[in-house]
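Sanity check

After download, print the first record. It should look like this:
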Amino acid sequence: MPQQFRGTGVALVTPFNEDGSIDFDGLKNVIEHDIKGGVEYLVSLGTTGESATLSSEEKLAVLRFTTKAVNKRVPLVAGFGGNNTHELVESIKSFDFEGYDALLSASPYYNKPTQEGIYQHYKAVAAASPVPVILYNVPGRTSSNITAETTLRLARDFKNIIAVKEASGNFDQVMQIIKYRPEGFLVISGDDLITLPLIACGADGVISVIGNAIPADFSEMVRLALKNDFVAARKLHYKLTDLTNLLFVEGNPGGVKAVLKQLGIGTDQVRLPLWRISNELTTKLEAELDIINQA
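Expected structure tokens:
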């Protein structure tokens, strides 16, 4: 089971119409673009999908629409996170996971739990989930870090916790997890820009933002790196680094949505408190996209 999550997963954006409603046609366009681009799997309603701004009804609508649009062509992961453990567990128990192969759950935000609190939170998630669980460590959003020790403890104690998406940016921490992980446990990059060096250290792939817009080049870079062809992988890595950096200058997913609009795949509409990126950054993204297309 875990091996189907090696390679490139894409944290899908949630396109919106100008009136703020969900643009399901746009979502289908992104899904088709990514599958055609050769990504290994898709993630619905991660933080890139602006899940924090969707109602419960909208989340269910997006999850159900995505299963139908994907139609089992690639593995699919559902994003389920929250800082109220009881409420999260109940939402997992009540959801029909038909069509989903795993669950991605970000560490609780804002509360700043201790490591024991994080462990107990994921213990409850693992007990409730009918599908494998992928931990998500993203201290820049949650204000707390899942230490290597806690990740390894969870990986050893619960057979259905199969992977961690690591977005701490802490190479020492990630290497400790890779070095001491149990057999079959995947370490997945949560940062596009450092995916290549993390794979060189032994990581198994990425859950990507840029993959929404540039799936073919980025997923090929990851596949080459996983085959230890780092000479070829580096060429694609450096082809995309400037665009990758620009995507996050004014926050995520505003940057990648602007690129999707330029590609004619989606809109650049985001939901408050997020806002569209500036005209200046849009111009820079357009110029960098032209350079990539001409390369």
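If your output differs, re-run the checksum step. Summary of this record's structure: The mean pLDDT is 96.
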